[in-house]
Q: What sequence folds into this?
């Protein structure tokens, strides 16, 4: 007792403060500070530059540029084709992931590696390759057009094909790990309770996969909206028909119409952000509904 | 419903999981499949359920050959070791799952389903948890929900795969008793797999002991415990003191000493092992007698319900280790009469000795 009271005054003052806020995970303020700084520097600063630059336009000017018929048509194509591509990828990406996780077959590892190729390939290479395939005289294009009368290259359909190509890995790579962790016992339990195969997929497997599927969908969509390189080759870029919004921006830039370009870019940013917010909200809702967030 | 398996064989690659298994399970009984891990008990259960297919052999349910029937048509309730509850559904939806999956024509209207779910939840005493998600429940509660879910489809048999394996000791004991009680109420033919001999002996009407894909013995708990048919069963159901010697004229000869044993099929002059449980050994002070074996006291452990004396063999049984189990009163008594000091020489005499031939005994001692 006497010893400890004798020692008390020498105790450094900072110990008291440190003790109060003690946490097993140190460095909170440092990591949060760094996160915010990095986010500002890399993401928010350039984005806000777009809005600041766009605000140099008066409202009627801005409105005229962003609602021009040619620009409007490009929004429809870009967002429409992106959503469609992401939806198609959600379905077929799930099937790919399923096959890769559930079955063993020769060359499985090669297939697994191939999935990532659209990530790595320069998009222009993908565009040129796709155009060569689907053009009127291409390997696939000649039959599609000759036999079925379907034109792919230089049409909105071509845009869709390119966007599907670049979006494949997202859904596969987000669903795959979740599917791997899924216990087969769950499906066995469902079967022993009398569920048919489709019932156990629909009621037991799919709800578990939905959040991951939505994440993959959102990523594929976001990637497709911003895609430029692979699309411009196959799209043909006919105004009002197969012209995507990123191309409009580039065209405006090439004509030194910087303000016009930023105005369109600002609209794209806002729409993309709203759509992603919606998808994230949907994902949070499904997660909550399925009891995962608790 | 009765269950019968006939000549079941199952291999995983070159590993023989089940080697020509034939068994009958009577209607309304609670049977334990007991054995060490890798003995094939879970595989057998999964084959009965239809979750796995046998390489050859038949599963006969209620007199009908069901070998090719799909699991969903076999009407078996299966309970998994790790519960396999649907995490994205509430407890209520989990239990209702089986009833809701029925074809529309057979499906009960939703109010009826709801009524039945609540009845089942009351049966497992967890009605108050109906709106929770599985992640909010304890392990014991989850397993009871899993059981209620399996019972919801009115299965003809209940199959439980190590149902208490993932639970801690206290909950396990509690659930064990509860399962027995539940079975006494429902009388549904049930098979459960376990590697815990205490669990099997305490809960089951009948115990099937398995090892290396073979059935070693089938019988009531007291039967298999008191009259083990093979050295493996003897060794698996409790501690063993083994005496190695030669069988001669109804005696087991160990060097200069000898032991009397129960009737056995071991031939005269054959190498043999005598097995005795720790509580069947007597500690005696007179070391001159030729009956019994000699040993020195190593340690006396006197805590718990029973006290244990550990001894090391001397002379003909040099290098062997023996264990004697006594009640505290017996220990007190022996201490007063003999002393039981560390290093003291004593004579060990089995009051019961079961003899097995040398070859068959090797696996029991392991």
A:
């Amino acid at each position: 007792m006497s010893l400890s009271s004798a020692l008390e005054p020498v105790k450094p003052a900072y110990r008291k403060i440190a003790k109060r806020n003690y946490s097993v995970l140190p460095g909170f303020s440092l990591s949060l500070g760094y996160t915010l700084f990095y986010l500002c520097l890399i993401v928010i600063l350039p984005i806000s530059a777009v809005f600041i630059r766009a605000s140099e336009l008066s409202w009627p000017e801005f409105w005229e540029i962003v609602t021009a018929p040619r620009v409007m048509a490009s929004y429809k194509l870009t967002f429409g084709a992106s959503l469609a591509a992401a939806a198609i990828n959600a379905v077929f990406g799930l099937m790919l992931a399923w096959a890769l996780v559930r079955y063993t077959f020769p060359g499985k590892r090669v297939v697994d590696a191939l999935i990532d190729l659209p990530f790595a390939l320069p998009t222009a290479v993908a565009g040129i390759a796709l155009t060569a395939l689907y053009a009127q005289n291409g390997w696939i294009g000649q039959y599609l057009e000759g036999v079925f009368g379907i034109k792919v290259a230089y049409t909105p359909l071509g845009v869709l094909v390119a966007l599907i190509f670049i979006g494949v890995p997202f859904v596969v790579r987000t669903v795959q790990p979740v599917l791997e962790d899924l216990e087969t016992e769950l499906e066995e339990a469902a079967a022993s309770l009398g569920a048919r195969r489709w019932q156990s997929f629909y009621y037991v497997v799919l709800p578990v996969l939905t959040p991951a599927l939505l994440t993959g969908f959102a990523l594929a969509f976001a990637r497709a909206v911003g895609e430029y390189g692979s699309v411009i080759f196959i799209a043909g870029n006919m105004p009002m028909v197969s012209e995507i919004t990123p191309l409009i921006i580039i065209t405006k830039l090439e004509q030194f119409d910087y303000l016009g370009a930023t105005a369109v870019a600002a609209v794209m940013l806002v729409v993309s952000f709203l759509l992603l917010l919606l998808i994230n909200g949907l994902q949070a809702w499904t997660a909550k509904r399925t009891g995962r967030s608790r | 419903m009765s269950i019968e398996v006939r000549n079941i064989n199952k291999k995983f690659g070159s590993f023989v999981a089940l080697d020509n298994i034939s068994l009958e399970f009577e209607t309304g009984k609670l049977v334990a499949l007991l054995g060490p891990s890798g003995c094939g008990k879970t595989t057998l259960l999964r084959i009965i359920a239809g979750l796995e297919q046998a390489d050859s052999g038949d599963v006969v349910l209620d007199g009908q050959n069901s070998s090719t029937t799909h699991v969903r048509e076999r009407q078996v309730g299966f309970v998994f070791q790790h519960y396999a509850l649907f995490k994205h559904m509430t407890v209520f939806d989990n239990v209702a799952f089986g009833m809701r999956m029925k074809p529309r024509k057979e499906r009960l209207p939703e109010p009826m389903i709801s009524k039945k779910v609540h009845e089942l939840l009351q049966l497992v005493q967890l009605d108050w948890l109906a709106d929770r998600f599985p992640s909010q429940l304890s392990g014991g509660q989850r397993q009871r929900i899993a059981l209620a879910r399996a019972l919801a489809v009115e299965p003809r048999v209940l199959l439980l795969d190590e149902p208490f394996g993932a639970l801690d000791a206290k909950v396990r004991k509690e659930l064990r008793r509860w399962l027995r009680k539940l079975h006494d109420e429902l009388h549904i033919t049930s098979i459960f797999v376990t590697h815990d001999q205490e669990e099997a002996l305490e809960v089951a009407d009948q115990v099937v002991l398995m090892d290396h894909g073979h059935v070693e013995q089938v019988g009531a708990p007291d039967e298999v415990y008191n009259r083990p048919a093979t050295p493996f069963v003897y060794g698996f159901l409790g501690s063993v003191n083994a005496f190695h010697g030669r069988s001669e004229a109804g005696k087991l000869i160990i060097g200069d000493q000898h032991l009397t044993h129960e009737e056995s099929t071991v031939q005269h002059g054959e190498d043999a092992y005598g097995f005795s449980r720790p509580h069947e050994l007597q500690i005696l002070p007179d070391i001159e007698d030729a009956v019994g074996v000699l040993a020195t006291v190593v340690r006396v452990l006197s805590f718990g319900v029973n006290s244990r004396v550990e001894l090391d063999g001397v002379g003909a049984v040099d290098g062997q280790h023996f264990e004697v189990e006594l009640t505290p009163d017996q220990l007190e008594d022996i201490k007063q009469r003999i002393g039981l000091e560390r290093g003291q020489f004593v004579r060990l005499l089995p009051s019961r000795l079961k003899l097995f031939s040398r070859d068959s005994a090797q696996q029991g001692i392991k």
